[in-house]
Amino acid sequence: MRFLLSLIMLACLMPVSLMAEDVTQYDFFIARVHYDGGGDWYSDPTSLPNLLSALNDRLHMFVPNKEAVVKLDEEELFHYPFIYMTGHGNVTFSPRQLKNLRKYFEQGGFLWADDNYGMDESFRREMEKVFPDSKLVEVPFSHPIYHSHYQFDNGLPKIHEHDNKPPQGFGLFYEGRLVVFYTYETDIGDGLESPEVHNDPAKKREQALQMAINIVLYSLHY
Amino acid sequence: MGYFIGITALFVLLVGTLLYTLIRKRVSAGKFALLLGLRLCFLALLVWLLTDPMITFMKTRSKPQKMYLLVDQSRSMSITDAGENNVARLDYVQKLLFDEASRADALRSENLLVEVIGIGDSVRRNLQPPLEPLAYQSNILENSLSFLDDISDDSRASVYIISDGCSTDKSVDVSGISSKLPLNTVCVGNPEEQVDCMIRSVQAPGEVDIEDTIDFHIQVGTQKIPNGSKLRLLLLDDDNEVLQQKEINTPLNDEVLLSYKPKSAGLHQYTVTVDSYDMDEPYTENNSYKTAVLVEKKDVRIMVIGKPSWDMAFLLRSLRAVRNVRLSVYNVADDTADTIFSLQSLVDQPVEEVLKNLSEQDVLIFCDVPATIFATSDMQGIEKFVENKGGGVWFMGGESTLGSGSYIGTSLTNLLPVFLVDNDYVVQPYRVDLSQIARPHPLTAGFAGSVDFDQVPPLTGINIVQKIKPAAETFFIANTPVGSQRFPLLSVMNYGKGKTALFAGKGLYRWSMEGGNQSAGGDLLTTFVRNVIAWIVSPSENALMHVRLPGIKYDLGEKIHTEAVVLDTTYAPASDAQVKGRVTGPDDFDKPIDFVPVPGEQSGFSTTLLPPKPGKYHLSITGIRTDGTKNTVETDFFVIPSSDEFARLASNTTFLHELADETGGEKFSIDEFADFLHTYNPRPVKEKLKVTRMVVDYPFVLMVLLGLIITEWVVRIKEGLS
């Protein structure tokens, strides 16, 4: 019985998939990566709907109100030029997923990975498998991703405290194009959540939203 | 001939001897001797005449003298310093030679044949008034010596050069010049004349990139102006608008630098002028110097205005992959706002302000942009950018643009190659295909024959186009998912000097994201974007027509050899082509050009141009094939005047005196020459002629022949001989 209740609770927390709807008609849409390895890929369930809502409200973008969910070994991955991943735990990519993800980046895809505290080590490890000859490098504060709409002259905003480290934005570049943006020690996803989830101050949530909008707009311009 | 005459004479002698032997017995010996003598004399004379005998003798005749007046027609002959009234040098010469009231009697004498010959860029025989100075300098030495060569055997000729001595070839060393006839020189103009200030030289680059600054290094000269005077130096453009202005003080030791950043590409004419605005200048022609600079656009400058979307994202990526593209990008964040967000300056900017700098762009791309963000004046500015400035506009479809974006009723529809309908956007997975156009075209390069469109991801929606404009063409079409309906997708049109294109679909990003590398040129979307941009920015569809022009700047009088090659649709030389051209230039110069086939070169044609005046010329060359296909290439070139003559206004008597001395001629000033003509009394020239005529041409010889035969027959009749 407890097992059944747990399953029902889990189902309620999981984001609603939009796979049934053809989202390609929209100006912008996001797919959340359903990765393997045990990490909670489904965390911060209200964050992306809130971001999409803000894109519609602030920039009048024609966007769906929910995110899609995609696995990296699915052909549908290529329907989504922007994918998002977060979580607290372990991340693993199968060989087929690694190959598909590499191809995804080569054909123009963009990944925003937001460390929700705990996925740093496994995420870096898996990304090294995708691009063995490239490494995640810290993106300088002068990079357009910090200025594409809102100005973040000092880089990423600090949303949640994890290990008393400064927030850092790392990038992986393929043929000069930023294909992976990894936000570390900031937890922007938490800042995007609805106010009642983490009780974050309004200023922090606004900073998280502005930075997320910057990331989205950057992906649409570069 | 001699053999024939000998045989004839022998035959006649034999027959005569036979006949006269028969009559010998019927007449006395005396009569017989008379008859025989008359006949022999007749025959002897006849045989002599058959040898074409000639008579030569000497004869004396009177003939008029010849006076050749070589008049310098170069530009400096318009300087007004001749005579007491300071008239133009050439006008003064014309009055002397042609004015009926003051013309010297010698010039009307029947004992003197006078021919006035213009010496300018060429030799003009039998020059008649009005005498016009040419717009440039002349080589009087070269042209005069050339003329003297032609008449050097004429002993009655005398040659006078009437000139100010200001010639481009005056630097040639006169010493050592030889001529069979003496050259008499007549100097016109004031040897003391001086200008106030002048442009001595202007050094400017021949070609610059539009991003670079043109530096004009100017040498200014002054002659009569006291030190401390102020001069004004101006730099003017093709329309005589002042671009730069600088005040300079005399004395001038160093060159002056004027710099200017060009605003548009093309061949531009620049004029540098100097004037001493606080004092009168009698001569100002030397105060300006024209030069030309070819301003090139190495980069294609593209302004993208669009709603943030995947189409815009992948369009920008493809544009960045195209070589030599310089992008400026603006986001439309609000359909109703009059500001757009600049990705360069990272601030919202008024649309009107952004469009003010449209002339600096080559192509404007609207990616799903509604008309509501533009004021009426903005849209008029965009239309002028295309129509008058030759810019290009590429419209991309979407749910916020075209018929669904309030375009109907605005001037933007003038730029569209299609007719719009309201609410035209439809969300359906339309497939893309090439339209049924047989001929290859730059817009379908890399697609035709190499892309399987069934494998290309469909669009996400299209703006339904029912009808394209008569002047437009469609190269890509959209098929409905079941393939029953086809709508124009990529349609293009020429509009004024520019071009417009419409891609009435959305979801192009899928070609890149889902399609992979499928075209012959690499990434499908990048190939498509490159094709459209290349077509829009090309000045004309000249892929099938090649023109070779040696350069862009030519000296006045320099012949310009131009070649054209016409290609067929397989890019091989077309066997059925003709080439026609037209050149237009300063002072409404407009002339058709004949191109002639180049021997041994299929579809190669050539022509030679000789522009008559300095200035900017426009050349339009069209290749025409028998099926009516036309390809036109248009280009500009510039002819540079020489302005040295007006830098030295004084007539150059030294040059003319040396010329006369070297050839044994006399030296005159123009007034001395006028006096000479008034006192000159030409006498006819006695000529001894050696006359040679044929004897048979004299009637007397025929009369002798006739007399001999008549006398013989009279004697015969009296003697009763038949």
Secondary-structure map with pairings?
The complex is a heterodimer of chains A (222) and B (722).
Chain A lengths: L1 H12 L17 E3 L13 H13 L8 E3 L11 E6 L7 H12 L3 E6 L4 H11 L6 E2 L29 E7 L2 E8 L3 H5 L2 H4 L3 H20 L1
Parallel strand pairs in A: 1-2, 1-3, 3-4, 4-7
Antiparallel strand pairs in A: 5-6, 6-7
Chain B lengths: L1 H22 L5 H22 L3 E10 L1 E8 L7 E3 L4 E2 H10 L13 E8 L3 E2 L15 H12 L5 E7 L19 E5 L9 E7 L3 E3 L4 E9 L7 E7 L5 E8 L6 E5 L5 E10 L12 E9 L3 E7 L3 H12 L3 E7 L7 E4 L5 E3 H6 L6 E5 L8 H12 L4 E5 L15 H4 L2 E2 L5 E2 L4 E4 L26 E3 L3 E2 L4 E7 L6 E10 L2 E6 L1 E2 L2 H5 L3 E3 L2 E2 H14 L7 E4 L4 E3 L4 E7 L10 E9 L3 E6 L1 E2 L6 E6 L5 E11 L4 E11 L12 H11 L3 E3 H10 L5 E10 L4 H20 L4
Parallel strand pairs in B: 2-5, 2-7, 7-8, 8-43, 10-16, 17-18, 17-21, 21-22, 22-30, 35-42
Antiparallel strand pairs in B: 1-44, 3-4, 5-6, 9-11, 11-14, 12-13, 12-15, 15-16, 18-19, 19-20, 23-27, 24-26, 25-28, 26-31, 28-29, 29-30, 32-33, 34-36, 36-40, 37-38, 37-41, 39-40, 41-42
Helix pairs in contact in B: 1-2, 2-13, 5-10
Give a description of the structure.
The complex is a heterodimer of chains A (222) and B (722). Chain A is of the alpha/beta class and 222 residues long. Chain A is built from seven helices and seven strands. A seven-stranded mixed β-sheet of chain A has the order 2-1-3-4-7-6-5, sandwiched between helices. Chain A is globular. The N and C termini of chain A lie far apart (51 Å). Residues 1-20 of chain A have low confidence and may be disordered. In chain B, the strands form eleven sheets. Chain B has a ten-stranded mixed β-sheet, with helices on both faces. A six-stranded mixed β-sheet of chain B has the order 6-5-2-7-8-43. Chain B is elongated and about 145 Å long. Chain B starts with a helix and ends with a helix. Chain A binds chain B through residues 22, 24-25, 27-28, 58-62, 78-79, 81, 107-109, 144, 147-149, 151, 177, 216-217, 219-222, and chain B through 307-310, 312-314, 316-317, 329, 331, 333-335, 341, 343, 346, 368, 399-400, 427, 429, 460-461, 506-507, 509-510, 512-514, 516.
